[in-house]
Amino acid sequence: MIYAKITGWGKALPPASISNDEMSTIVDTTDEWITTRTGIRARRVSHVSTAELATIASKQALACADVSGEDIDLVLLATCTPSTMVANTASLVQKNIGATGAAACDTNAACSGFLYALQNATAQIQSGMIKKAVVVAAERMTWYINWAKRDSAVLFGDGAGAVVLEASSEPSGLLGTKTGCDTEDRDILHIANYGTDLNKYEAVGPSDLLFEGREIFKRAVTGMSLACDDVMDKAKLNLDDIDALIPHQANLRIIQAIQKKLDIEDEKVIVNIDKYGNTSAATIAIALCEAVEQGMIKPHANIMSAAFGAGLTWAASYIKWGERITPLATSDYTFTPCEQSGLELVQDAVTACKNNS
Ligand code: UT7
């Protein structure tokens, strides 16, 4: 049996951020509301493109695995905020990391995208089609935000996370997975004013993230818990076997509700929504990388992860970590210097949204 072992991990978190107090100078909100309703205290704003975020995270993951870009067979980029649609953004990441022999493809399953892409790349390795892959999730969610609307403006941030997968005989990597899509509800979370359904000769307002928060909340908790149960059942895992839970970071209250349903102790739940907000497909990839860096993932750890997103897509994954929890090498490729604050970076967009509202 061939497995797709995770041998490298990396992340890219842009330096500029917006705190809740700063957010309250843009929309009618308070630090108290955002913190108690969502758990978010700050979010990053990128001064570089989605492709560049993905490149930085991927280069770190490759260095961590001590694998050269030339040896990669597949670059899968999970994103719903691509730098370009045609050519796909993965092709630029492929070029930037020197993976010239690799296939390159974008995957859009919104916030579930990283787990969808991980499943796809793992299956290709397990089937023997390919040997090495980079799976990267990168999002520039702040690009979509309508800064005149407080319900969505406070929730999202930018960032990227990546892993390198390599064919291995050791039972590790993605050992259990279930993905699905609750399409009846696709309207309860969508981006308006975007896509080829629009008449391109008619002016439209700024893109706008529309959602029914309470409805998504309920469905997210139920859907992710059921998906986790299903994956654990098939993998014959008990709750005691789980060493870490890495849920999609959309709302701290959703994370706590899933934790309660699964009955998992606090110290096993990986949470970083306070620092980065909801970075869509990137939340799980960033959290996984950070958890390893912070020593929260031990050798051979059993990790459960679950996500939901627009579609409504959902996914649950059981990942078995390998022996190594330290990088083989590091990459010094990083962000270009950013001279502006988070507030300064979004200022023009804020003015445009307010003029349009
Ligand atoms: O992934 C895509 C989007 N993610 C989600 O939708 C995640 C799932 N949903 C959630 O996380 C939560 O539903 C939200 C955080 C989005 C909203 O929390 P909630 O507890 O469901 O609040 P709500 O939408 O029911 O709104 C409660 C009140 C409303 O005021 P009234 O009508 O009770 O007077 C809102 O207008 O909170 C008000 N409100 C705000 N107040 C201050 C909504 N946004 C804000 C805000 N600051 N930013």
From TrEMBL:
<keyword id="KW-0012">Acyltransferase</keyword>
<feature type="active site">
    <location>
        <position position="248"/>
    </location>
</feature>
<dbReference type="InterPro" id="IPR004655">
    <property type="entry name" value="FabH"/>
</dbReference>
<keyword id="KW-0963">Cytoplasm</keyword>
<dbReference type="InterPro" id="IPR016039">
    <property type="entry name" value="Thiolase-like"/>
</dbReference>
<keyword id="KW-0443">Lipid metabolism</keyword>
<dbReference type="GO" id="GO:0005737">
    <property type="term" value="C:cytoplasm"/>
</dbReference>
<dbReference type="Pfam" id="PF08541">
    <property type="entry name" value="ACP_syn_III_C"/>
</dbReference>
<dbReference type="InterPro" id="IPR013747">
    <property type="entry name" value="ACP_syn_III_C"/>
</dbReference>
<dbReference type="GO" id="GO:0004315">
    <property type="term" value="F:3-oxoacyl-[acyl-carrier-protein] synthase activity"/>
</dbReference>
<comment type="pathway">
    <text>Lipid metabolism; fatty acid biosynthesis.</text>
</comment>
<dbReference type="InterPro" id="IPR013751">
    <property type="entry name" value="ACP_syn_III_N"/>
</dbReference>
<keyword id="KW-0275">Fatty acid biosynthesis</keyword>
<feature type="domain" description="Beta-ketoacyl-[acyl-carrier-protein] synthase III C-terminal">
    <location>
        <begin position="232"/>
        <end position="321"/>
    </location>
</feature>
<feature type="region of interest" description="ACP-binding">
    <location>
        <begin position="249"/>
        <end position="253"/>
    </location>
</feature>
<feature type="active site">
    <location>
        <position position="111"/>
    </location>
</feature>
<dbReference type="Pfam" id="PF08545">
    <property type="entry name" value="ACP_syn_III"/>
</dbReference>
<keyword id="KW-0276">Fatty acid metabolism</keyword>
<feature type="active site">
    <location>
        <position position="278"/>
    </location>
</feature>
<keyword id="KW-0444">Lipid biosynthesis</keyword>
<dbReference type="GO" id="GO:0033818">
    <property type="term" value="F:beta-ketoacyl-acyl-carrier-protein synthase III activity"/>
</dbReference>
<feature type="domain" description="Beta-ketoacyl-[acyl-carrier-protein] synthase III N-terminal">
    <location>
        <begin position="106"/>
        <end position="182"/>
    </location>
</feature>
<protein>
    <recommendedName>
        <fullName>Beta-ketoacyl-[acyl-carrier-protein] synthase III</fullName>
        <ecNumber>2.3.1.180</ecNumber>
    </recommendedName>
</protein>
<comment type="similarity">
    <text>Belongs to the thiolase-like superfamily. FabH family.</text>
</comment>
<dbReference type="GO" id="GO:0006633">
    <property type="term" value="P:fatty acid biosynthetic process"/>
</dbReference>
<comment type="subunit">
    <text>Homodimer.</text>
</comment>
<keyword id="KW-0808">Transferase</keyword>
<comment type="function">
    <text>Catalyzes the condensation reaction of fatty acid synthesis by the addition to an acyl acceptor of two carbons from malonyl-ACP. Catalyzes the first condensation reaction which initiates fatty acid synthesis and may therefore play a role in governing the total rate of fatty acid production. Possesses both acetoacetyl-ACP synthase and acetyl transacylase activities. Its substrate specificity determines the biosynthesis of branched-chain and/or straight-chain of fatty acids.</text>
</comment>
<keyword id="KW-0511">Multifunctional enzyme</keyword>
